[in-house]
Amino acid sequence: MTEHRLRLPAEWEPQSAVLIAWPHAGTDWADRLAEVETTYVALAAAVTRFQPLVIVVSGHELRLRVQSLLTGEGVDLSKVRFVELPYDDTWLRDSGPITLTADGGGFQLTDFRFTGWGGKFGAEQDDALIAGLVDEGVFGKAAHKRIDWALEGGGIESDGVGTVLTTWRCLTQRHPEQSREEMSAILADSLHARRVLWLDYGYLEGDDTDAHIDTLARFAPGDRIVFQACDDTQDPHHDELRRMGDELAALRTPDGRPYQLHPLPWARPIIDEGRRLAASYANYLIVNGAVLVPAYGDVADDEAARIIGLAHPGREIVQVPCRPLIWQNGSLHCITMQLPAGIV
């Protein structure tokens, strides 16, 4: 494997598995553990319909509990692999590996520094998770490259052919001392990208990630971009997301054409204990042959699923109940990390 042949695949390319970590009483889910486990069980059932699932558990007792929960829902455990490792929390989109593939075969597990979203939360065990998975032999002979620069997987989107999309709001918070040009060069070098596109606008109230791109705008096949819009002019997000939509409309594909844009509907405000929760439909997960779409018990759920289906033709659309997840300010994509075909 030669480095110059590496690339960051698009999420819609073939996968070998999805990686998750199961919530337990030692994570921030403790106060609502039973509730959030219903989402994890539904997610596991959905993923294993299409491909294998790797579940990180904190120990043998939790493994037995998860096996019991999944068996009770008819999940095929032959498609599930358990790995016992310590972890701080379950947001594996951000603490899991960003996997680069080589055209001639081979993989590189790109292991950026995970700081708990800029030091907001303790993250020592999560930062060591990728090395632990490598030691457990999950990824075969894939190369493991540690990069001492803070980046979370939810902070980047790839079209699979050399374009990375990200947000200034997030990365300038992680690296306030660096310019956009400096960060673009680091991203291009570490992710083997040809170009880096930036959004200056877009955020969700209640989001700890400082505007991760996977809560706002997603690449889709055929030069499409699916993005979270807000049609409620009285909502405080309206102007910011309108400006983000204008930025997306101004972007061009590598051959100079505008992207085909698919705006997503806006869920009604969800308030919990006096705070607004970040309910984004853009936080969906693509798997082999399907797209798993967050549902929040909102009237917009079905329309969001329909639009995502239009942007990903030929895939089954499966709604997963995600209202319990947004209590911790994330959703479906945030708790998962896809693994490219051949690595597991």
Automatic annotation (TrEMBL):
InterPro entries in the record: Peptidyl-Arg-deiminase_porph
Keywords for this protein: Hydrolase
A single GO BP: putrescine biosynthetic process
SUPFAM superfamilies xrefs: Pentein
Superkingdom of origin: Bacteria
GO MF, one annotated term: protein-arginine deiminase activity
Listed PANTHER family: AGMATINE DEIMINASE-RELATED
Protein name per its UniProtKB record: Agmatine deiminase family protein
Protein species of origin: Dyella solisilvae
Lineage: Bacteria, Pseudomonadati, Pseudomonadota, Gammaproteobacteria, Lysobacterales
